[in-house]
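does this look right to u?? glutamine version
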Amino acid sequence: MTYQSFIKNMQDKAYENGKEESAVILILEAVTKLETNFLYMKMNEEIDDKTISDFNKIFDIYLFENKPVQYLIGYSTFYGYDFKVNENVLIPRFETEELVENVLYRYDKHFKGQKVDVCDLACGSGCIGVALSLEEPNMNVIASDISNEALEVAKYNNDNLGAKVKFLQGDMLVPLQGYKFDIFVSNPPYIPNDELVDPLVKDNEPNIALFGGSDGMKFYDIILKGVKPLLKEKAIIAFEHGYDKKEEMLALAKKYFPNSKAEVLKDLEGKDRMTFIYVGDFKW
Ligand code: GLN
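got this back:
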Protein backbone atom coordinates (compact mmCIF):
# COMPACT_ATOMS: atom_id res chain seq x y z
CA MET A 1 0.00 0.00 0.00
CA THR A 2 1.26 3.52 -0.75
CA TYR A 3 1.55 6.23 1.89
CA GLN A 4 -1.21 8.06 0.09
CA SER A 5 -3.74 5.20 0.32
CA PHE A 6 -2.73 4.43 3.88
CA ILE A 7 -3.26 8.04 4.93
CA LYS A 8 -6.63 8.18 3.18
CA ASN A 9 -7.77 4.94 4.88
CA MET A 10 -6.69 6.15 8.30
CA GLN A 11 -8.32 9.55 7.82
CA ASP A 12 -11.56 7.79 6.93
CA LYS A 13 -11.22 5.67 10.06
CA ALA A 14 -10.64 8.77 12.20
CA TYR A 15 -13.69 10.43 10.68
CA GLU A 16 -15.88 7.34 11.24
CA ASN A 17 -14.87 7.36 14.91
CA GLY A 18 -15.63 11.05 15.34
CA LYS A 19 -11.96 12.02 15.63
CA GLU A 20 -9.83 14.63 13.85
CA GLU A 21 -8.51 13.53 10.46
CA SER A 22 -5.54 15.86 10.92
CA ALA A 23 -4.21 13.58 13.67
CA VAL A 24 -3.18 11.03 11.02
CA ILE A 25 -0.47 13.24 9.52
CA LEU A 26 0.73 14.31 12.98
CA ILE A 27 1.15 10.70 14.09
CA LEU A 28 2.79 9.67 10.83
CA GLU A 29 5.25 12.57 11.05
CA ALA A 30 6.06 11.51 14.60
CA VAL A 31 6.72 7.84 13.79
CA THR A 32 8.65 8.51 10.56
CA LYS A 33 10.40 11.58 12.04
CA LEU A 34 9.71 13.30 8.73
CA GLU A 35 8.52 16.87 8.33
CA THR A 36 5.30 17.40 6.37
CA ASN A 37 6.93 18.28 3.03
CA PHE A 38 9.23 15.23 3.14
CA LEU A 39 6.27 13.05 4.02
CA TYR A 40 4.38 14.41 1.03
CA MET A 41 7.33 13.55 -1.23
CA LYS A 42 6.86 9.89 -0.26
CA MET A 43 3.16 9.74 -1.11
CA ASN A 44 3.54 7.28 -4.00
CA GLU A 45 6.05 5.05 -2.21
CA GLU A 46 5.09 1.81 -0.49
CA ILE A 47 4.63 2.18 3.26
CA ASP A 48 6.62 -0.41 5.27
CA ASP A 49 5.27 -2.73 7.96
CA LYS A 50 7.30 -1.20 10.76
CA THR A 51 5.87 2.26 10.05
CA ILE A 52 2.36 0.83 9.96
CA SER A 53 2.75 -0.98 13.28
CA ASP A 54 4.37 2.05 14.98
CA PHE A 55 1.54 4.19 13.64
CA ASN A 56 -1.16 1.82 14.83
CA LYS A 57 0.18 1.69 18.38
CA ILE A 58 -0.49 5.42 18.75
CA PHE A 59 -3.51 5.66 16.46
CA ASP A 60 -5.46 2.98 18.37
CA ILE A 61 -5.07 4.91 21.61
CA TYR A 62 -6.04 8.10 19.80
CA LEU A 63 -9.18 6.50 18.35
CA PHE A 64 -10.46 4.86 21.50
CA GLU A 65 -9.05 6.56 24.61
CA ASN A 66 -10.03 10.25 24.52
CA LYS A 67 -6.43 11.51 24.55
CA PRO A 68 -5.17 14.55 22.61
CA VAL A 69 -2.87 13.48 19.81
CA GLN A 70 -0.17 15.95 20.96
CA TYR A 71 0.14 14.21 24.35
CA LEU A 72 0.39 10.84 22.59
CA ILE A 73 3.23 11.91 20.30
CA GLY A 74 4.74 14.07 23.05
CA TYR A 75 5.10 17.36 21.21
CA SER A 76 3.21 20.14 19.48
CA THR A 77 4.50 22.40 16.74
CA PHE A 78 4.26 26.07 17.63
CA TYR A 79 5.68 28.93 15.55
CA GLY A 80 7.68 26.36 13.59
CA TYR A 81 9.29 24.80 16.66
CA ASP A 82 8.51 21.43 18.23
CA PHE A 83 7.59 21.94 21.89
CA LYS A 84 7.47 19.01 24.26
CA VAL A 85 4.03 18.73 25.88
CA ASN A 86 2.52 16.45 28.52
CA GLU A 87 -0.50 16.53 30.81
CA ASN A 88 1.15 19.19 32.98
CA VAL A 89 0.91 21.86 30.27
CA LEU A 90 -1.74 23.23 27.95
CA ILE A 91 -1.26 22.25 24.32
CA PRO A 92 -0.27 25.43 22.43
CA ARG A 93 -3.12 26.82 20.30
CA PHE A 94 -2.97 28.46 16.87
CA GLU A 95 -4.35 31.70 18.32
CA THR A 96 -1.35 31.96 20.57
CA GLU A 97 0.98 31.93 17.57
CA GLU A 98 -0.84 35.07 16.53
CA LEU A 99 -0.16 36.62 19.93
CA VAL A 100 3.56 35.97 19.41
CA GLU A 101 3.42 37.36 15.89
CA ASN A 102 1.66 40.53 17.04
CA VAL A 103 4.14 41.07 19.86
CA LEU A 104 7.05 40.72 17.41
CA TYR A 105 5.40 43.12 14.99
CA ARG A 106 4.89 45.73 17.70
CA TYR A 107 8.42 45.28 18.99
CA ASP A 108 9.63 46.13 15.47
CA LYS A 109 7.35 49.13 15.34
CA HIS A 110 8.13 50.63 18.74
CA PHE A 111 11.43 49.19 20.00
CA LYS A 112 13.28 48.01 16.89
CA GLY A 113 16.96 47.26 17.45
CA GLN A 114 16.70 47.91 21.19
CA LYS A 115 17.31 45.41 23.96
CA VAL A 116 14.04 44.88 25.79
CA ASP A 117 12.98 43.02 28.92
CA VAL A 118 10.00 40.79 28.27
CA CYS A 119 7.78 38.84 30.65
CA ASP A 120 5.70 35.76 29.77
CA LEU A 121 3.43 35.24 32.76
CA ALA A 122 1.73 31.84 33.24
CA CYS A 123 4.08 30.38 30.65
CA GLY A 124 2.96 26.72 30.70
CA SER A 125 5.03 24.84 28.11
CA GLY A 126 7.02 28.04 27.57
CA CYS A 127 5.85 28.36 23.98
CA ILE A 128 5.34 32.16 24.01
CA GLY A 129 8.52 33.13 25.84
CA VAL A 130 10.73 30.59 24.09
CA ALA A 131 9.41 31.51 20.62
CA LEU A 132 9.96 35.23 21.36
CA SER A 133 13.47 34.60 22.62
CA LEU A 134 14.33 32.58 19.50
CA GLU A 135 12.71 34.96 17.03
CA GLU A 136 14.08 38.19 18.52
CA PRO A 137 17.46 37.88 20.22
CA ASN A 138 17.07 41.45 21.53
CA MET A 139 14.37 40.15 23.85
CA ASN A 140 15.57 39.20 27.29
CA VAL A 141 12.69 36.99 28.41
CA ILE A 142 11.61 36.02 31.90
CA ALA A 143 8.81 33.45 32.10
CA SER A 144 6.90 32.41 35.19
CA ASP A 145 4.33 29.85 36.21
CA ILE A 146 2.77 28.64 39.45
CA SER A 147 3.27 24.98 38.45
CA ASN A 148 6.67 23.39 39.00
CA GLU A 149 5.65 20.54 36.70
CA ALA A 150 4.89 22.99 33.90
CA LEU A 151 8.19 24.79 34.49
CA GLU A 152 10.05 21.52 34.08
CA VAL A 153 8.56 21.16 30.59
CA ALA A 154 9.20 24.84 29.79
CA LYS A 155 12.86 24.57 30.84
CA TYR A 156 13.28 21.44 28.72
CA ASN A 157 11.85 23.31 25.71
CA ASN A 158 14.08 26.30 26.34
CA ASP A 159 17.23 24.15 26.45
CA ASN A 160 16.18 21.83 23.66
CA LEU A 161 15.43 24.71 21.29
CA GLY A 162 18.46 26.76 22.33
CA ALA A 163 16.54 29.75 23.72
CA LYS A 164 17.68 31.98 26.58
CA VAL A 165 14.61 32.36 28.78
CA LYS A 166 14.96 32.65 32.55
CA PHE A 167 12.24 30.93 34.59
CA LEU A 168 10.62 31.85 37.92
CA GLN A 169 8.11 29.90 39.97
CA GLY A 170 5.22 31.53 41.78
CA ASP A 171 1.65 32.79 41.76
CA MET A 172 0.88 35.54 39.23
CA LEU A 173 2.93 38.71 39.91
CA VAL A 174 4.53 37.48 43.15
CA PRO A 175 7.80 36.05 41.72
CA LEU A 176 8.23 39.05 39.39
CA GLN A 177 8.52 41.72 42.07
CA GLY A 178 11.58 43.94 41.55
CA TYR A 179 11.74 43.36 37.79
CA LYS A 180 10.87 45.99 35.17
CA PHE A 181 9.59 45.07 31.73
CA ASP A 182 9.21 46.77 28.35
CA ILE A 183 6.82 44.09 27.11
CA PHE A 184 4.51 42.11 29.37
CA VAL A 185 2.76 39.18 27.69
CA SER A 186 0.29 36.71 29.13
CA ASN A 187 -2.10 34.03 27.96
CA PRO A 188 -3.59 33.24 31.38
CA PRO A 189 -6.36 30.70 32.04
CA TYR A 190 -9.49 32.37 30.69
CA ILE A 191 -12.34 29.91 30.23
CA PRO A 192 -15.28 30.80 32.55
CA ASN A 193 -15.51 28.15 35.30
CA ASP A 194 -18.95 26.90 34.34
CA GLU A 195 -18.46 26.90 30.56
CA LEU A 196 -18.98 23.56 28.84
CA VAL A 197 -15.62 22.37 27.58
CA ASP A 198 -14.90 19.51 25.16
CA PRO A 199 -14.10 16.42 27.29
CA LEU A 200 -10.94 15.88 25.24
CA VAL A 201 -9.71 19.22 26.64
CA LYS A 202 -11.27 19.16 30.10
CA ASP A 203 -10.37 15.56 30.97
CA ASN A 204 -6.76 15.81 29.79
CA GLU A 205 -5.34 19.32 29.86
CA PRO A 206 -4.47 20.86 33.24
CA ASN A 207 -7.65 22.56 34.47
CA ILE A 208 -5.51 25.06 36.38
CA ALA A 209 -4.34 26.32 32.98
CA LEU A 210 -7.84 26.56 31.54
CA PHE A 211 -10.27 28.15 33.97
CA GLY A 212 -10.21 31.84 34.82
CA GLY A 213 -12.91 32.39 37.44
CA SER A 214 -16.68 32.77 37.08
CA ASP A 215 -16.41 35.14 34.08
CA GLY A 216 -12.97 34.13 32.78
CA MET A 217 -11.60 37.60 33.70
CA LYS A 218 -10.06 36.88 37.09
CA PHE A 219 -6.41 36.80 36.05
CA TYR A 220 -6.53 39.91 33.85
CA ASP A 221 -7.84 41.81 36.86
CA ILE A 222 -5.10 40.49 39.14
CA ILE A 223 -2.40 41.30 36.57
CA LEU A 224 -3.60 44.77 35.58
CA LYS A 225 -4.23 45.77 39.21
CA GLY A 226 -0.62 45.07 40.20
CA VAL A 227 1.52 45.28 37.08
CA LYS A 228 2.26 49.05 37.04
CA PRO A 229 5.38 48.86 39.27
CA LEU A 230 6.71 46.07 37.03
CA LEU A 231 6.60 48.21 33.89
CA LYS A 232 9.16 50.61 32.49
CA GLU A 233 8.00 54.12 31.62
CA LYS A 234 7.10 53.01 28.10
CA ALA A 235 5.68 49.51 27.98
CA ILE A 236 3.32 47.23 26.09
CA ILE A 237 0.97 44.78 27.80
CA ALA A 238 -0.26 42.00 25.50
CA PHE A 239 -2.99 39.51 26.42
CA GLU A 240 -4.75 36.63 24.76
CA HIS A 241 -8.36 36.27 25.95
CA GLY A 242 -11.79 34.80 25.27
CA TYR A 243 -13.44 35.75 21.96
CA ASP A 244 -16.38 37.46 23.69
CA LYS A 245 -14.42 39.66 26.09
CA LYS A 246 -13.63 42.72 24.01
CA GLU A 247 -15.69 45.19 26.06
CA GLU A 248 -14.60 43.70 29.39
CA MET A 249 -10.92 43.89 28.41
CA LEU A 250 -11.22 47.50 27.25
CA ALA A 251 -13.06 48.39 30.47
CA LEU A 252 -10.33 46.81 32.61
CA ALA A 253 -7.62 48.59 30.62
CA LYS A 254 -9.40 51.90 31.17
CA LYS A 255 -9.88 51.20 34.88
CA TYR A 256 -6.22 50.53 35.65
CA PHE A 257 -4.52 52.50 32.82
CA PRO A 258 -6.95 55.38 32.12
CA ASN A 259 -4.44 57.38 30.07
CA SER A 260 -3.20 54.54 27.89
CA LYS A 261 -4.27 53.48 24.44
CA ALA A 262 -5.74 49.98 24.24
CA GLU A 263 -6.64 47.99 21.14
CA VAL A 264 -8.37 44.67 20.63
CA LEU A 265 -7.09 42.50 17.78
CA LYS A 266 -8.88 39.74 15.94
CA ASP A 267 -7.46 36.29 15.33
CA LEU A 268 -7.47 34.63 11.90
CA GLU A 269 -10.97 33.33 12.56
CA GLY A 270 -12.13 36.91 12.93
CA LYS A 271 -12.63 36.62 16.69
CA ASP A 272 -11.66 39.33 19.20
CA ARG A 273 -8.76 37.43 20.73
CA MET A 274 -5.99 39.80 21.91
CA THR A 275 -5.78 43.09 23.76
CA PHE A 276 -2.69 45.30 23.61
CA ILE A 277 -2.27 48.18 26.06
CA TYR A 278 0.35 50.88 25.41
CA VAL A 279 1.54 52.50 28.62
CA GLY A 280 3.56 55.73 28.39
CA ASP A 281 4.72 57.75 25.43
CA PHE A 282 4.11 55.98 22.09
CA LYS A 283 4.41 57.54 18.64
CA TRP A 284 1.78 56.47 16.10
N1 GLN B 1 -7.82 28.92 24.09
C1 GLN B 1 -7.85 27.82 25.02
C2 GLN B 1 -9.07 26.95 24.77
O1 GLN B 1 -10.02 27.41 24.24
C3 GLN B 1 -7.86 28.32 26.43
C4 GLN B 1 -6.55 28.88 26.76
C5 GLN B 1 -6.55 29.66 28.02
O2 GLN B 1 -7.41 29.55 28.88
N2 GLN B 1 -5.58 30.46 28.12
O3 GLN B 1 -9.06 25.78 25.07
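The chain has two domains: 3-65, 89-279. idk if thats expected tbh
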